[in-house]
Structures are given as structure tokens and as C-alpha cells.
Amino acid sequence: LTQQFNAMSEQLRASGEGLRRSEERYRSLFENATEGIFQADARGRLLGVNRALAQMLGFASPAQALAHSSRLRRLMGLEVPEFKRIAAALSRHRLLQQLPLLVVTREGRQLWLELSAHVVPGPDGQGLRVEGMVSNITQRRLAEQELNQHRDHLEELVAERTLELSQAKKRAESANQSKSRFLATMSHEFRTPLNAILGFAQLLQMDASLTKAQPAK
Prior knowledge:
By secondary structure, the protein is α+β, with helices and mostly antiparallel strands. The protein has seven helices and five strands; from the N terminus they run αββααααβββαα. A hairpin with a 5-residue loop joins strand 3 (about 95-105) and strand 4 (about 110-120).
């Protein structure tokens, strides 16, 4: 019995040590992650946030963030309709992936965040919890907006250049038609006197009374 009790104690100690190391690893991942992480209950009350999310939203520490508000909507500066839309989607699908959100920090800065969240059972099956990850995609969104602006500007330049080329083509065609009309008119103007000259020359050649020297004079 003593041996069994000692073996059971050793197993419990080893199990407790394993749980402690597992908790330390989880806490280290949670606290030192570069992405924002949060846990909340089914009603949106925050159970915990990590340092990255707190600093992302303008707070010095998770404790300061939670002291500011224990509500996920208020902490992230979400409008009520937007929060209800997210809550309805989570309730329906139990999962959200890479949802872009425009939020306003307590300093008034606008941030583009990307939210991924899922619903999980609470401890011992008591209620539901929401666990989520938040990434700051502001720089990426700004780069996309700048790229879209450049693309729109390029499309405008292409449209303007196409219009200029079309107008130049019309001017060239009009000039070509004018040249053709000019040449046709000038050809007619040259042919009319030339025909008379040729006619008189032929009449002179037909006059037998004229010597060869007379037409030359």
C-alpha cells in the first residue's frame, strides 16, 4: 500500500509538473506573442488580453487596457452595429477568419485590424468563450489604397492618351482628305489650260501652210 501510495504521489507530482510547464508555455505564448490575443465570455466581457493587443490599442499594459474597459466593443472602439454583426456571425458560424475592421483608439487614431475568432466551451463545460487573434494591417491597407489610387490615375492617363490619339487620328484623316481634295482641284486646274495648249499645238501641226521654223518662233 505504501509503495502504491508513493507511486501515485509520484504520478501526481509528475502530472502537476507537466501541467505547470504547459501553463508556463501557454502563458509565455500568450504574453509574448507579437499578435494581439484576447479571451472573452459569450456576452463580450473580457477575460484577458495580451501585451501586444493592449499596446496595439494604445495602452501601456494589459492591466491598463482592462481598467479602461472590460468590454471588448469599447476597448476596440467598435460601433454597436459592427459589434452586433460580428456577434451574430460568431453565433451562427462559431468561427470568423481574417475579418477586416476599422477601429478608433482612445487617442483618436484609426487602425485597420484583422480579426480571427472562434467560440469554445468554457472550463468544465460551463458556458461559452470567445478566443480571438488581432493583427494590425493598417500599413497593408494604406499600401493597397495607394496602389488603387495609382491604378486609377494610370487608367485616367490611359483614357486621356487614348482620347488624344483618337483626336490626332481624326486630324490626320481630315488633313489627308484636304490634301486629296487639293491635289484633285490642282490637277483639274492644270489640265484645263494644258488641254487648250495641246489643242492649239495640234492645230498648228495640222496647218500645211506653216513651215517647220514658224511653229518654233
